[in-house]
Amino acid sequence: MMENFNYSQKVMEHFMNPRNVGEMEDPDGVGTVGNPMCGDVMRLYIKVEGDRIVDARFKTFGCAAAVATSSMVTEMVKGKTIEEALKISNRAVAEALEGLPPIKMHCSVLAEEALKAAIEDYLRRSKDEGDRRVQPSHKHPL
Ligand code: FES
Prior knowledge:
With 142 residues, the chain is α+β, with helices and mostly antiparallel strands. It is 48% helix and 18% strand.
């Protein structure tokens, strides 16, 4: 049953018709976070080219606000640099959705955290690759 909160039209629209739902093949970063307050879970995938996020997808097991914020955050990060994406706050996501009922603001934290986790994963992976690449130069020449 639909929760009886005062959701904005935009929240309802993104909940009924979420953008970028599903898994991503071969992502450059994946972030999975859970909301300890309700047990809901969000997973966010990003694809990065150069320093720019070119695609984002999500899978969320959660309430309408969690689905709508996931949908919105995937739309907001596309085309942003990693640095710009790191500045996206849960408030910015909620604002883009024309606000959330105060009692549902905690749901938007999931979107911010999932995005940050996906970016951290991406940065870790690229660092590992960088480490692998520089390794040969550490070898002592025979
Ligand atoms: S109630 Fe769990 S994320 Fe909204």
